[in-house]
């Protein structure tokens, strides 16, 4: 009787959840920092890249 | 034997941590309270914040809270193994190694503080750093196992988020922020001691001095009443500040009247009465305490939301 090796073990499922979870968290962090950067440089009047009409852009 | 099937016992799959186990290290239930109160602190502040900055700030405050939770689990792993309530936490369950939890806690703490500084300001970041230090070093390492007032001290750490939220917006701390801190600070002891009266905890086994064990249940009942009365003063005082208003004051008067009534009822009871009705009064008081905190911060949120229409505030 041939025996079978289970390709999908519980262990693999847990590791996959860990890896996918960490990947999603890192992507969200990148998106958050990007969004934060846009918000900061776009609204801070004292910033050189600040809103149009301020000293830096004139 | 030519059996080539995988041998499950060779490596215990149950001990392999999933993503959820690492998330559990951050104490998500505590984080939800942190997120809510920090958000209220940020929104009721008189300075408006860019939504993206607000979102980032709240997330980093929550991350800092989660990081301190991981460090708390790292330090308390020895007693968590002894108590039924905490036995299934990732470290005692054998899913996450102690060193791993420590590394995650430290790394996330630094990341949260630095990112909050970059997203908001030094005052907010400094307060977050102090909160983590206070919870991990002052509470977890030092006083939790040393004094029956541990709940009071631990409550202070949980009370900082609305103050940090306020600091994100204003860059400073004012009387409103201090009173929001005081509200959560004074609320924590009656909330937890009511729970301690009806949940059979095994703190004694772990040598953690809980008030119910060190001073008895009668003293705990008196303490609940004392803190509840102090809490009412703080709650009403908060209503008189710039972030209060008729909606908040109405909610505060009603909830505090109910809370004081409940605390008086608890203070008059004895253990025989508790056993007879299976801690009905204590259970009701505990449930009310949840509504109490969310009610007060929710009312502050309503005041701030109505303000642009000329309806909120005094």
TrEMBL record, chain A:
Q: Does the keyword Transmembrane helix apply?
A: yes
Q: Which UniProt keywords apply?
A: Membrane, Transmembrane, Transmembrane helix
Q: Which residues cross the membrane?
A: 20-39
| Name of the protein in its database record | Cytochrome C oxidase assembly protein
Organism per entry: Sinisalibacter lacisalsi
Traced from the root, the source organism's taxonomic lineage reads:
Bacteria, Pseudomonadati, Pseudomonadota, Alphaproteobacteria, Rhodobacterales
TrEMBL record, chain B:
* Highest taxon above the source species: Bacteria
Tell me what topology the record assigns in the membrane.
Multi-pass membrane protein
Q: What is its EC number?
A: 2.5.1.141
Write the record's keywords in alphabetical order, separated by commas: Cell membrane, Heme biosynthesis, Membrane, Transferase, Transmembrane, Transmembrane helix
Q: Which reaction does it catalyse?
A: heme b + (2E,6E)-farnesyl diphosphate + H2O = Fe(II)-heme o + diphosphate
Question: Which residues span the membrane?
Answer: 30-49, 55-75, 96-118, 124-143, 150-171, 177-199, 224-241, 247-267, 288-311
Which pathway does the UniProt entry assign to this protein? Porphyrin-containing compound metabolism; heme O biosynthesis; heme O from protoheme: step 1/1
Q: Does the keyword Heme apply?
A: no
Which InterPro entries does the entry link to? Protohaem_IX_farnesylTrfase, UbiA_prenyltransferase, UbiA_prenylTrfase_CS, UbiA_sf
Broad class of enzyme this protein falls into: transferase
Q: Which PROSITE patterns match?
A: UBIA
State its location(s).
Cell membrane
Q: Which HAMAP family does this entry report, sorted A to Z?
A: CyoE_CtaB (MF_00154)
Q: What does this protein do?
A: Converts heme B (protoheme IX) to heme O by substitution of the vinyl group on carbon 2 of heme B porphyrin ring with a hydroxyethyl farnesyl side group.
Subunit info here reads: Interacts with CtaA.
What family does this chain come from, according to its entry? Answer: Belongs to the UbiA prenyltransferase family. Protoheme IX farnesyltransferase subfamily.
- Other known facts: Carbon 2 of the heme B porphyrin ring is defined according to the Fischer nomenclature.
Record-given protein name: Protoheme IX farnesyltransferase
